[in-house]
Amino acid sequence: MYSTMLPFIMILSLVPWTEARSIPAIQTNLSPVNPSASKEARELLENLVELSGKGMISGQHDYLEEPDEFNNELKNSTGQYAVLHGYELGAINNQSKKTIARQRQAVVDSAIDWYKNGGIVAMTFHQSLPGSSPDWSHVSMSLDQGKFNAYVTPGTPQYKSLIADLDEAASYLGQLRDAGVPVIWRPYHEMNGGWFWWGKKSNFKALWNIMYDRFVNTHQLDNLLWAWNPNAPNEWSDPYLPYYPGTDKVDILAADIYNNDYNQIYYDSLLELADGKPIGIGESGELPDPELMANKQKKWVYMMTWGKMLTENNSTQKIKSFMDDNYTMTREDRVRALEIEVNTNVFSRNSLKGEYFNNANLTGKPALSRNDNKIDFNWRGGSPVSVIGKDSFSVRWKGKIKPQYSEKYTFSASSDDGVRVWVGGKLLIDSWKKQSGVTREGSITLTAGTLYDIKVEYFENHGDASIRLRWESPNQKETVIPQSALFFPQ
Hints:
Blueprint (H helix, E strand, L loop, with lengths): L38 H13 L4 E2 L1 E3 L7 H10 L5 E5 L8 H20 L3 E6 L19 H7 L5 H22 L4 E5 L16 H15 L5 E5 L23 E6 L6 H11 L4 E6 L5 H7 L3 E6 L3 H4 L3 H9 L3 E2 L1 H8 L13 E6 L10 E5 L3 E5 L12 E9 L5 E10 L1 E6 L2 E6 L6 E9 L5 E9 L4 E9 L2 E5 L5 E2 L3
Parallel strand pairs: 1-10, 2-3, 3-4, 4-5, 5-6, 6-7, 7-8, 8-9
Antiparallel strand pairs: 11-12, 11-14, 13-20, 14-19, 14-22, 15-18, 15-20, 16-17, 16-19, 20-21
Helix pairs in contact: 3-5
């Protein structure tokens, strides 16, 4: 895991990615449209602006059901990962609510891991018509203007269904926010075509604004960069401008281009509309020609191949040539350019101090002290590290915790074996005994933005060993307490 990520360096336009030199990043004047955007989101936008005209970030999309399938296929066939990993939050196979929740959680978990390992995260949302079953026929469908109007009219049953869908999606994006992961968020894409229920609507901007307001002002999803992503304006889709929400609601502009139709006018007209904002190829079936990009369309800062089209529409040789080209940036190139240091013991301000003892009662001198980014461990029948025995050991974590909301929080600890949890000096969980897979809970009212002392003690007796610390509140979906909410003890 990459524990320290420095600001992205600028790479000279004539220097291949593989020979990138570290020089100071230039501060741009472009800020995210959300005034409260997170530090990570601001840095990512700066990165994209700095890279524009210097090369193309490689990208690969994966589906909700298998969030790493084609990204891994790309790695297996070329030896290199793409930088940008495209994920999906929309459910289109009529899955049960339980299955959708499990699949979306797998997407979140993969995205966190991807970012920690030097990648960029993008999210697509093939949203079914609100209130309908999660089926492709309720995404790719025609909806007349009058019926669409009901969904963007506050107070209607249709509007309430829309808000419920948005709130559910926001809960997963909120986990990424809490983990410090910036996201290129590309909802309601290809809106200038008529094949989705939100497409070719005279008041499309109203739908965009509802989502923007809900995510930014209600859910505080400050980790999002808002990517407006029409289809290339060809014989099936309209020009860009009528559907553009405006410069105050869009961070990135992208176009979906299929059938190898990299027409110069698609690029020129989007670049003009962007007026300095970064532009990308949001989806493509056929990999673009790096030579064409470098000579005539060099402001495309990223591209993303759509799912299975990676291998269906491109030969193995073409894929390898694209990833090997000096104009194409791979994840391996980005890791080198970011100057990321791989060292799990590097001090992180967002972490807890963990003290590990070779006995079950936390006595004597710790055999190991280290920084732990969260408490979510399953050692099974093994031990945390080689210097600790696999049975009869104990751990004490200490630090600070900062809630996002002013309300009552419930902490839950699942452990095998004993566990104790203090927050703000109050003992919330006291289950110091041999037990297997038991979850204990305790609650406390916290104030947003306030740092509270947190201490967790754990012991393993014999056999399997595991501990996981979670929290939830009326506005906080139940989740493992993220690194972003934890702070090293002062």
